[in-house]
Amino acid sequence: MENKKAEQLKKFTIDNEEQAGLTTNQGLRMAEDEFSLKAGLRGPTLMEDFHFREKMTHFDHERIPERVVHARGVGAHGIFQLYESLSEYTKADFLNDTSKTTPVFARISTVQGSRGSSDTVRDVRGFATKFYTDEGNFDLVGNNMPVFFIQDAIKFPDLVHALKPEPHNEIPQGASAHDTFWDFIGQNPESAHMILWLMSDRAIPRSLRMMEGFGVHTFRLINADGKAHFVKFHWKPLLGIHSQVWDEAQRAAGKNPDFHRQDLYEAIEKGDFPEWELGIQVIAEEDEFSFDFDILDPTKLWPEEEIPVKIVGKMTLNRNVNNFFAEREQVAFHPGHVVPGIDFSNDPLLQGRLFSYTDTQLSRLGGPNFHQIPINQPVCPFHNNQRDGMHQMTIHHGQTSYHRNGLNANQPEPVPVELGGYDHYQEKIDGRKIRGRSDSFLDFYSQAKLFYNSLAPFEQKHLIAACSFELGKCKSDLVKNNAVALFNHIDRQLAQEVADNIGAELPEENLEVKSDKKSPALSMANTVSKSDTKSVAIVLNGEPDDEKLTEWVKTLAQYNINYSIVAKKISPINAVLKVTDTFDTAESSLFDAALLISTEPEIETPVLEFIETTFKHFKPLALAISNSQALECSRVHVNTAGVYDLSQADIHQFVEGIGQGRFWERQL
Question: Which residues form the active site (predicted)?
Fold first, then answer.
């Protein structure tokens, strides 16, 4: 099963690495491809040059409209393996049969910026997964945050208009630090919870391999007996949840704007396959109103301490795409792509997405036949009476294209439910047609308070700094004051510190939610810490000891830690090792740790800047320096947490530090 999608894609593949004659798109072999047909060597190009016209016309139309949101994305193929049958909850075949391996394609993206923006900007990350099941495609289309800005889809165009670069000057790109976005936040208090997530470290992940994914919405699972449960979906990374710090993210954007996509690509190429476990939170229908929040509200999460996450399977991304455009850019996701046993709730944001995703694919991909693009095709057969349209690639046989028909024995005919046909859950609905919001959706601040309370002190400090940075970029005093007023409903100290930092007015009355409730699952301080697949910069200042360097490199490799050797110029060190990066091409922000080897009396400026930045970003730092006085005037505090003197400490202690990741006590 895991090879079914790969085999299907091969049918549509042209291997340009194979030896083959150059042809036109009509199959005509061409003898020349460097010069257009001219009237004499210095004469004008002739219009009869069909090869030139075909080649140029295709080039002129190569770009398609980029996504309105989630334009900058990266993706890969993989597999999903179920741990245990979920037949108690759903009749979905791929969630029942543990012997099956389901092909998947995952796309991870930023939201605000264009395709040319940077990877490490502060933003929500989209996390979309297409399961190619035997019953059809199931798309789990979510984010790396469990909640959203708005409660009703009718506000989505307004949110995106406010979030996008401002229309009068197209600034800023790939950022939410501007007036129109924060004006929207201040005028729409339902965004209070989500804005704290966006200002938290979750918005600047260390790696796409090290972030969670959430379905965001409440869905339904229906079992073979017709019993339904409400469900939320989670992706839990096996490497843990890790972030950058803000200064580091900005530096990475300047040195390598493709930092995240390169990291994902190279990890898969090396065989360090990213893995996420699929978790579900399940609530019985009869318990829908048993909580102090509305389970259909997309601005609310289900606290894991109240509704535990049940781990049910694992996704492994194990194959990069062969062509970025054909697969990553043309892949089309839609939360309405479901299979028997999975259905929708009345979440008003989800209901709107069920319309908008198909609608936007019609614009981007040129018409209603985007499902025929190879990356979007299901692995199971599909038959219906839909015909023609732009880019129709299927040649349909037969006289009839309608239902019901007698000329073709009513083929294709609907499939009975008992034979696997999809049937919507028969929810009883009784209500008046009305535009409005349920009173149960009116609690805007309690879960924002829960999230803020749950953060570790260093995470709260980062969130305050992020709010201060973003609002400090705003020009309007009205926008700043309204944002602080919003924070005043969540936490008085948060509002006070941000107001002081940006020169805004703090409301006289303290309106914060009075709660000390916490959810440990919301703090990244409680995540898994591993050294596995992390990267170390071995920074050279002078000539290293070959034997020692070789020993340390072997130890790093033993723990599956990647390394690069950084020096003034690229050159061989010995028969095996060579300098791979220079201080012009590499930067501390691109690594998880640094090992400084210095055999000189003084440490040169580029080297010093590199290790000082490593220390500034709270990363582990190992030192093997011949002159113990060389760092006395630097900003590196040698006798502090996460700094290892390899003349006294063992390299394995450094490895343990790499596993820990950050040493926040340097900050606090």
Answer: 70, 143
